[in-house]
Recover the amino acids of this structure.
């Protein structure tokens, strides 16, 4: 194990050192100004209470560190002509990224009204955390950002996601020591086992030991350096320490360390690209230890502030207090604004010269506005992968396996473009996408041994047993203008509920920002779903992610439950072409009846919802009963129930409706996909009973349809949170989603049926369920007539 | 850095070595039997296809390793009279824990029909992953378990949670190398910075490097040992390696290593307890590297199986295939069952003697059935903390700060019992529970420096910036019979959505298991909520956890939204007394109007929902309009709207309803708290407009009430996913939850109002909103009349 510090190196001559320090002061000045000032941005007049915002909001603590890093990265970029973006894990340091992009000019180019003069400065300050202005966090509004950082933990996954397949890119990623305590961040250090120096870019993690969170110290700031060093060596990095509080010394140290790290990266890439070195390299990382609220007031109201948790947000929240205005004045004057900005309020030219130019500026790098770089995927015709369905239900197929064949060829067609990857927490094959591995391997830079299956340093299937990593990598990959699909066990996708939230919020805001170009949608395949968890059981049974998703803005979320392979193909194609959505696709992997030939599937998916006439006997007349279904298992059970009803009550007119696009159910006022009220009434009638078999929690269907005319006659069957390791059909039975319970409920709601008919059917159902229970308790599998059941059209 | 292996030590003499090996074989035999056999449990007859289950389900891969560890822990327990429980991170190894608790006798004591004879063996085998039987994972049904492990990542947090305040307990925690890749697990190694050897127990982590997940290798199995060693040194442990595949050598090595680890633990505890050593110790951990599917078939169908991913589930899934029955037969015979079990099928006495006795058996340890040990908290009278409310709205108060005072004294009263802790991702003070720190500190075993705030090695407030850790620790603490409360920012509680799921599922199953005694409820305070995220903004605004929670079984979830401090006190008291629930409490921390004096608060909370007569003017008659509210900000806005309505239309009869217990809204058929239909109609009328102001997503209210008579007249206002950093009142405005929008919607639905009155009100609203917008854009804060608004009863 080695680690080095660079105390003896002095790479900066006095002139550049002075200028860099001044640039840093300028960034700090602008940061403090954003938090506090309403007016008098250059302090040309004596500071008064009236110049200060009435509500002081924001986070100072991490900001000077973020500024310090930015000025040093600028130097590295200029010196080496680097293609670099900056990920600010401590998103609370919003003022820093705004300040720096303003100083380098990219902010004013993006927002011309925030001009490079005194008036622009005033607007810059005022807008921060101000109604109608910009948020206090690094956000979509911030040029150069692909990472919000409001919810902590995902900086490094985003960084690696951005670096994959971007060989020239260097992603500088600041990780806060608070964030470093989160689970997602703690495992994301291992991303280096999935980064190939030959054709991926580099990530330079900078762990910023600020020392404190909101109130408590941080774990990593309070373990000895030998543990820290060992930890990051163990994670596979060479850690370099930059520690101190004297700015001039720290500038030299940081510059020397950054030089070393960039050299190491160059060597690693050179070895891989020119000399065929294929071992996993030991990448550099930097541990920067500096005081929280560095350069801020040392003491406020007799309490130590700089270097303590009291610097976390606004060091002096209450400016009415005696002496606080003067503290702020001294603090801001300590940066000597008159040396930084000319009379007009523009950054002095010799300082402005420190920033990179054009797209090399981190606030203007196109990778941070990935839509600019986005190329459409080359897609084969999904119809070519159709399962032959001569008549509905006559063949069986594994829907996700068929999807895997399509994805294999999508992968193949885009191998050269290097802009498509699949992500999964080790469930790629379990979810039946194994054919993809015929054209690309599983990404793996770790040791390989005989017996390993389809590992490859160049693989494009990314599997790590961390849903957080899969989601974070994919987000980073999409946000920098590429494409992907995330396959996950349905139950465990809840692990990234909160990450989905943040991404959906990001997309929602981007829709309101013209300069943010649309990016590829975030696509989920949820398989190994609640109804087929044969190896696992109750812990693996949870269809609630859909409920979670539909709370987000309708304009960014889509949910599809294709009932078979051909509809899944059609939906998949659609998702891969769509932009700025989160698409959730739920589909089973087990052999199941196939209902629609490709032509019908395309038509059905285009409509999103429709009558299955071949399964209905209402012949276009008003039906007596509507049997609706959404999801593969509910569809099968519904059709089986319809068959039984046809048998017992042939004269009963039953209409079968299948839903692929869940959002069709909602009113058009609530979701752009929502079916018009008349069309809905035409389908579901205004007054006939509807038995609705749904894949997930029944409440969701009520919630989506509560405004619909016939809602009072809607009876939904779905997952009632009853589960265990049992047979597939028994899972349906214990939740009342099976054909018998569906039929029973239909009969219960058909008030015109003669009572002897009702009794006959009820008796039949009781017998069948008893037979089922007896058989499975004895044989451990479903009755042959259930296993072999076929629709017989 | 040091690490040691113990190659040279041979602590086991031949006799004990042979016996331990035999015991291990017995456990492996029983494990294989569970996965495969339907009959012929002792292989007394030649094995035939008919003896084999028709559906083969389960996970073999991790099982022999779990068995190996169990037999060695048994030896350690007996030798040192240890009080030990076993947490099986690889929950997929269900057969191992069932096998071992069966061998030690605790299983048959718990389930007498699974007797210690051939008939019992047959039932033991058959029930596994069989309908009506036991799940394939370690589960609530498994004696000795507090950890399901279906969803991976929480083993070590659970282990530490169990160890806190249990000085005599040793929690052996097996961490799978798949699980080790998850975020939650990766950060949970740092739990050692929060464990005090003086009065907490010990955790012995055993990282089991099996090598593979479902299909891919694991990260930690494919980094060199020097990185592994450094990583765990960096995490603060001394790692000991136990590596190999030769069972006899491995037994010696494991025994020697376990001896060393137990000695080290004893020394650490002795130093802290007897010699006043207060430094954070370096705890031992074991890295066990053994083949996946160890002792299983070397090869199946020409493919290497033992030691590869093909052993993950059932090595031969298809027993119809040529030769598979014979492979199974050879495999099972390789354990030589005739040497292990006597003729009756009972484990031979000399082997049974290896197991600990009574409660020392890990399957019978009362800590793993925490309800057995649970003591009620000593609670002060919450009424003593009442905020004085002479008339509604006359005083302001910070609800969660008042709650903090109550919790301070709860803490105080139970300091000696050491059975109450608070958990928070560094948000204890931010959520205003700081008074608790007057009686106990923040738990901290890391370095302390001047300027730190209320850190203490003996602290009972646990803060780490990881919601996963807070949740995992708390679960472990509760499951071993103690009490706690988790305070979290509302938006970020989604980080543990999936952990909540698993805990709720655990509780649901426990309700069906008579021997599982009730445990204290898992209590959440969600504060810093969506309506008051002044420092943050959109990323911090998400009230959807409630939606997620109510998908779980009604019998285990409760949701409370007290509108002020006194109601919050009453709810808090109730939560601390309740058992086997998950209680979600949402309350604000900002200074807000106080509505109810303590007597009224208790009455209101007991009812859970009710008319606020002092705010209504229907005087017990049928109202013209119902204004309902749930949550603190919605309550304030509703009351303000009512005031405006009173002013404009004094003759209008308005009824104000406040909801504390959200589940009151649901039908009694769906939730035990649900209001009876008649009572609901009495409150909400059958046909009058209801304007419902709700804290969260409006859809939830529709979903809970869609069956109610007057649902068609229900208009819900809530969070519409519109947010940013803006003023408190503007947050309400942009989501339409403010007094003006509430009033506007009321007027819109009061069809009898004269049109000139309607126009007058609409004009007023437009003016007010314009005034608001103008003011906040200019001043950055709300209009004085909004900020200073007071109910004037």
């Amino acid at each position: 194990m080695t680690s080095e510090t660079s105390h003896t190196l002095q790479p900066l001559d006095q002139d550049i050192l002075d200028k860099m320090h001044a640039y840093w002061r300028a960034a700090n000045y602008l940061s403090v100004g954003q938090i506090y000032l309403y007016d008098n941005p250059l302090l040309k007049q004596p500071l008064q209470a009236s110049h200060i915002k009435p509500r002081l909001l924001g986070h100072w603590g991490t900001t000077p560190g973020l500024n310090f890093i930015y000025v040093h990265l600028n130097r590295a970029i200029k010196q080496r002509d680097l293609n670099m973006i900056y990920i600010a894990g401590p998103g609370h340091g919003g003022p820093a990224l705004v300040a720096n992009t303003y100083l380098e000019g990219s902010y004013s180019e993006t927002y011309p009204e925030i001009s490079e003069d005194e008036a622009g400065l005033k607007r810059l300050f005022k807008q921060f955390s101000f109604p109608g202005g910009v948020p206090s966090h690094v956000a979509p509004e911030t040029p150069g950002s692909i990472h919000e950082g409001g919810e902590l933990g995902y900086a490094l996954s985003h960084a690696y996601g951005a670096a994959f397949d971007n060989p020239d890119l260097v992603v500088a990623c600041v990780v806060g020591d608070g964030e470093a305590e989160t689970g997602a961040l703690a495992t994301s250090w291992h991303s280096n086992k999935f980064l190939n120096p030959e054709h991926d870019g580099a990530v330079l993690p900078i762990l910023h030991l600020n020392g404190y969170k909101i109130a408590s110290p941080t774990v990593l700031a309070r373990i000895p350096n030998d543990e820290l060093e060992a930890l990051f060596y163990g994670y596979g990095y060479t850690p370099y320490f930059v520690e101190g509080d004297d700015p001039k010394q720290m500038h030299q140290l940081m510059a020397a360390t950054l030089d070393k790290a960039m050299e190491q990266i160059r060597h690693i890439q050179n070895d891989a690209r020119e000399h065929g070195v294929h071992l996993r390299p030991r990448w550099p990382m930097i541990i920067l230890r500096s005081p929280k609220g560095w350069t801020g007031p040392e003491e406020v109201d007799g309490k130590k502030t700089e270097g303590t948790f009291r610097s976390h947000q606004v060091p002096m929240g209450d400016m009415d207090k005696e002496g606080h205005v003067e503290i702020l004045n001294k603090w801001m004057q300590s940066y000597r604004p008159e040396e930084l900005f000319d009379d007009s309020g523009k950054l002095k030219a010799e300082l402005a010269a420190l920033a990179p130019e054009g797209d090399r500026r981190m606030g203007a790098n196109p990778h941070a506005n990935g839509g600019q770089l986005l190329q459409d995927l080359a897609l084969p015709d999904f119809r070519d992968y159709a399962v032959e369905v001569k008549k509905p239900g006559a063949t069986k197929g594994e829907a996700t396996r068929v999807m895997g064949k399509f994805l294999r060829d999508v992968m193949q067609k885009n191998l050269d473009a290097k802009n498509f990857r699949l992500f999964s927490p080790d469930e790629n094959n379990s979810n039946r996408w194994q054919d993809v591995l015929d054209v690309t391997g599983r990404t793996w830079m770790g040791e390989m041994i005989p017996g390993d299956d389809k590992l490859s340093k160049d693989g494009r299937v990314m599997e790590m047993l961390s849903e957080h990593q899969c989601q974070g990598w994919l987000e980073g990959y999409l946000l920098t203008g590429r494409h992907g699909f995330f396959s996950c066990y349905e139950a465990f996708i809840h692990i990234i509920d909160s990450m989905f939230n943040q991404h959906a919020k990001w997309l929602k805001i981007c829709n309101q920002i013209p300069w943010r170009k649309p990016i590829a949608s975030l696509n989920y395949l949820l398989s190994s779903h609640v109804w087929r968890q044969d190896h696992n059981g109750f812990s693996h049974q949870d269809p609630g992610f859909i409920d979670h998703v539909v709370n987000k803005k309708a304009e960014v979320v889509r949910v599809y439950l294709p009932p078979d392979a051909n509809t899944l193909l059609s939906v998949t194609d659609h998702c891969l072409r769509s932009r700025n959505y989160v698409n959730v696709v739920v589909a089973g992997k087990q052999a199941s009846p196939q209902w629609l030939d490709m032509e019908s599937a395309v038509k059905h998916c285009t409509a999103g919802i429709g009558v299955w006439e071949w399964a209905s006997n209402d012949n276009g007349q008003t039906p007596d009963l509507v049997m609706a279904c959404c999801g593969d298992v509910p569809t099968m059970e519904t059709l089986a129930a319809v068959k039984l009803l046809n048998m017992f009550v042939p004269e009963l007119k039953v209409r079968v409706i299948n839903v692929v696009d869940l959002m069709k159910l909602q009113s058009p006022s609530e979701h752009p996909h929502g079916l018009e009220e008349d069309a809905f009434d035409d389908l579901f009638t205004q007054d006939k009973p509807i038995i609705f078999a749904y894949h997930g929690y029944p409440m969701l269907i009520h919630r989506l349809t509560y405004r619909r005319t016939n809602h009072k006659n809607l009876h939904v069957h779905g997952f009632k949170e009853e589960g265990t390791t049992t047979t597939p059909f028994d899972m349906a039975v214990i939740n009342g989603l099976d054909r018998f319970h569906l039929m029973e409920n239909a009969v219960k709601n058909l008030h015109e049926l003669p009572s002897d008919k009702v009794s006959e059917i009820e008796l039949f159902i009781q017998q069948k369920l008893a037979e089922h229970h007896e058989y499975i308790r004895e044989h451990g599998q479903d009755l042959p007539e259930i296993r072999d059941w076929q629709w017989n059209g």
About this structure: Residues 247-274 of chain B form the longest helix (28 residues). Confidence is low (pLDDT under 50) at residues 1-7 of chain B.
